Amino acid sequence: MSGILALGAYVPQRVMTNKDFEAYLDTSDEWIVTRTGIRERRIAAEDEYTSDLAFKAVEDLLARHPGALEGVDGVIVATNTPDALFPDTAALVQARFGLNAFAYDLLAGCPGWIYALAQAHALVEAGLAQKVLVVGAEALSKILDWNDRATAVLFGDGGGAAVVGKVRPGFGFRSFVLGADGTGAKELYHACVAPRLPDGTSMKNRLYMNGREVFKFAVRVMNTATLEAIEKAGLTPEDIRLFIPHQANLRIIDAARERLGLPWERVAVNVDRYGNTSTASIPLALKEAVDTGRLQEGDHVLLVSFGAGLTWAAAVLTWGGA
Q1: Catalytic center at which residues (predicted)?
Q2: Where are the alpha helices (DSSP H) in the chain?
């Protein structure tokens, strides 16, 4: 069985608070906190991009787990904000750390890091890789419309990294749930090559989100995906020691928590400090849970995320076993 052998994360130094938005947008700290739970977020420096965030997340992983990259023969970077369409950001990571590994980017919206974990797990189990470095990194501040109150206040930048490989029996990944519904593509997008979607929806070169529709979608799939993942793992909600949901909106997190019947003490929350960091969201929260002692070897962990596509993903793993 495979699982997470090492973990690291990084956030940029610059902190942007809700008060900063009050200076030029028709909004307020109270309005943002009430609707999202976000109080501040981290913003990449002008010359800091997704590859830089990925590098620093991996450097943090190495500082915590010296030698963790030995034997890594695959690199997957989940991101929605790659430095370039090509070369892939994963190849830049491979080169930076001198790895003898294949490398590719994965674009699946905010659930991309869980998608990448699933692929890493499958590669290891199939014998196609010994160890896979899985990174989630985003410089979302580079693609925002800073004058759009509906989106500018929601997102932040950051990166997380994990090494996936074989763990001892009784530990590691127990289930994955992956899904997509492309009929909702028009609700959350950023243009690249085409000026419109196949249904004729015009796209602009800045992040767009239909908040109302995405909120309804998120509440629905966070509930269904988590319950399905728990069932596939042969567990019940009571068995989950820590629930780590995508950090997009505190109200969405609360709805999922209530559906699972979990107390807040068993839910990881950092959306108030980082906002929505997309693919970096889950590894950032996971790393914090380890650092604060909220996650111990043998604990069952539930991960879930949703995002553009529309997509969703959930996973259950038993922590430890390295």
Answers
A1: 110, 246, 276
A2: 18-22, 29-36, 50-64, 89-96, 112-125, 149-152, 211-232, 250-260, 271-274, 281-291
Q: Report the alpha-carbon angle 248-40-137, nearest 5.
A: 55
Verify cis geometry, omega within 30 degrees of 0, for the bond prior to 111: no
Residues above pLDDT 70, as percent of the chain? 100
How sure is the predictor about 215, in pLDDT bands with cuts at 50, 70 and 90?
A: very high
Q: What token pair was written down for 164?
A: 């996936």
Mean pLDDT of 121-143: 98
Average pLDDT, the chain: 98
Angle at alpha carbon of residue 189, lines to 186 and 193, rounded to 5°: 105
**Other CB atoms within 10 Å distance of the CB of residue 294:** 17
pLDDT, tens digit, 9 for 90 and up, residues 252-296: 999 999 999 999 999 999 999 999 999 999 999 999 999 999 999
Residues in the chain: 322
CA 256 to chain CA mean position, Å: 17
Q: Answer yes or no: are the C-beta atoms of 265 and 287 closer than 8 Å.
A: no
Residue corresponding to tokens 């009571």:
238
Quick check: 230 and 236 in contact, CB under 8 A?
yes
Q: Quick check: 256 and 315 in contact, CB under 8 A?
A: no
Please give the Cα distance from 287 to 10 (Å, whole number).
10
Instruction: Provide the whole-model pTM.
Output: 0.98
Based on its alpha-carbon atoms, the radius of gyration of the chain, rounded to whole angstroms, reads 18
Residue 155 is classified by DSSP as: B
Residues annotated as catalytic are 110, 246, 276
What is the DSSP track for 64-95? HSTTTTTTEEEEEEE-SS-S-SSS-HHHHHHH
- 117: confidence class by pLDDT, cuts 50, 70, 90: very high
